[in-house]
Amino acid sequence: MIKRHPEPLLWVLFSAGGMLSGMLMPALILMFGIAYPLGWVTPPRYEQMAGLMANPIVRLALFGLIALSLFHWAHRFRHTLYDGLQIKHLNEVVAVVSYGAAVVGSGLAAYLLWQVG
Amino acid sequence: MADRIRLQVARYRPEQESEATYDEFDVPCPKDWVILDGLNHIKDQLDGTLAYRWSCRMGICGSCGMTVNGEPKLTCATFLHEYAPGPIRVEPLRNFPVIRDLIVDIGDFMRKLVTVKPWIVRDEERPLSAGEFRQTPDEMDEYKQYSMCINCMLCYSACPIYGLDPKFVGPAAIALAQRYNLDNRDQGASARMDVLSEHEGIWGCTFVGECTKVCPKHVDPAGSIQRYKLTAALESMKSFFLPRGA
Amino acid sequence: MQAMHHGDLYTAYHPRWLRQPKNTYWWLEKPSYFAFILRELTCLPVAWFAVYLLLLTQAVIDSPAAYAQFMAWSASPWMILVNVVSFALLVFHAITFFVAAPQALIVHLGRTRVPGSLILIGHYAAWAAASVVVIWLLGRA
């Protein structure tokens, strides 16, 4: 018999988010955060970017990346505050704020990525 | 090579003090002496009141674990000359209550160990006439690493989570549970899942990995826990989507 | 059994035992503890870049001018600093995550176990491939 509580699901989301963010974010931030601003590479023109983001597969991938990354952050952040700063008395508050923010962010991502098509 | 080295040994005498103090001793430092030899020299020649646990002095009984210069070590397996010129700070294992001097109480672990059923669990016993269980080398390799645990408690001492949350079941208990879960003679995996799938079971672990680093028998408890997280998560998904069992 | 249980309860709360409380700054005591906390804090740049992607999406929805403004904002000195630091931390996150993966993912092909090193190499290969795809997609867009 397995005990029922949300930890296993949250861990799966954390793991998936960690994997996706590890695979995709370094390249993305290298381009958008460093290469384009410093002029090493010409950034995509607006039409090119809009076209790319209209692609349904790209939008699905972006949604997965953003949503799971936020859940990855929420899980890790909550545990680190609990273990690192020992704020046990605020455990429920931190959990609600973190996972709540992840849910809100995921909803926002779904809304925006729906619109950009 | 210096022929003597200084040991700063933690003392705690509950009948006369309420805090730990430190006594300093100079002990001989031959090349083949370990910390335990130093402690035995102190007890034999310098201060017979020093209290500490030891037994086999060869790294198999798990009794002589202590904190040496901040790190959990088996004192029978740690050479004095590694720390030359010294001094060497010898303290009781962290994260456990200190009974006296270098002796800690590991009752918490002993109680937790029993809850994970560290023995072969069978749905029904085989009759003697059926003969012995046969196991291939590959089948033994599945769990052999986790069977090497000597219950020395260095992993609990190194684990920051156990230090912060004493309800955490802990590395050795989970590794020992896995030793049986992965043994193909055992049928008790679901019985153990009860305890392990609790909030303070495997889910208390944040994969710091210190337990594996300090384990003197290379059991890799951190690995056993992460493996089990995947198993338990899949089991959890299954029981959620297929409540009456597939 | 009853007597043993009683003894357990008594000794668990023995008043004379020395219990040292855990230092709140335990993670400063050892380099490996500090590295662990740093690894955990890589979740912050992960969240930051997720928000950044949301802002980028909003800019693309709005107008070419909004997109141009977003790119200009990304090029401001503070933003470049934040993103350079985030890039470093995200690489650290990726490496520490992929190194951890073989310990959870025990894969058997038939009766033989896939060695952990192979699983790790697989992750790095996937990382390289994913990065190439991302950069190529942005280039040909």
Could you characterize what this model shows?
The complex is a heterotrimer of chains A (117), B (246) and C (141). Chain A is mainly alpha-helical. Chain A contains four helices and no strands. Chain A has helices at 7-35, 46-54, 56-84, 91-115. In chain A, helix 1 crosses helix 3. The longest helix of chain A has 29 residues, at 7-35. The model of chain A has no long low-confidence stretch (mean pLDDT 91). Chain B is of the alpha+beta class and 246 residues long. Chain B folds into two domains: 4-104, Beta-grasp domain (Ubiquitin-like (UB roll), Roll), CATH 3.10.20.30; 107-241, Alpha-helical ferredoxin (Fumarate Reductase Iron-sulfur Protein, Chain B, domain 2), CATH 1.10.1060.10. In chain B, strand 6 (98-100) and strand 7 form a beta hairpin. In chain B, helix 6 (171-181) packs across helix 9 (221-241). The longest helix of chain B is centred in the last third of the chain and has 21 residues, at 221-241. Chain B is elongated and about 65 Å long. Chain C has a two-stranded antiparallel sheet with strand order 1-2. In chain C, helix 3 (43-62) packs antiparallel against helix 4 (64-74) and helix 5 runs antiparallel to helix 6. The longest helix of chain C is centred in the middle third of the chain and has 28 residues, at 77-104. The N and C termini of chain C lie far apart (74 Å). Chains in contact: A-B, A-C, B-C. Chains A and C meet through helix 1, helix 2, helix 3 and helix 4 of A and helix 2, helix 3, helix 4, helix 5 and helix 6 of C.
Largest sheet of chain C: 2 strands, antiparallel
Q: Report the sheet-strand fraction of chain B.
A: 5-15%
Intertermini distance of chain C: 74 Å
Q: Strand count, sense and closure of the main sheet of chain B?
A: 5 strands, mixed
Dominant shape of chain B = elongated
Q: How large, in whole angstroms, is the Cα Rg of chain C?
A: 25 Å
CATH level 1 class label of the largest domain in chain B: Mainly Alpha
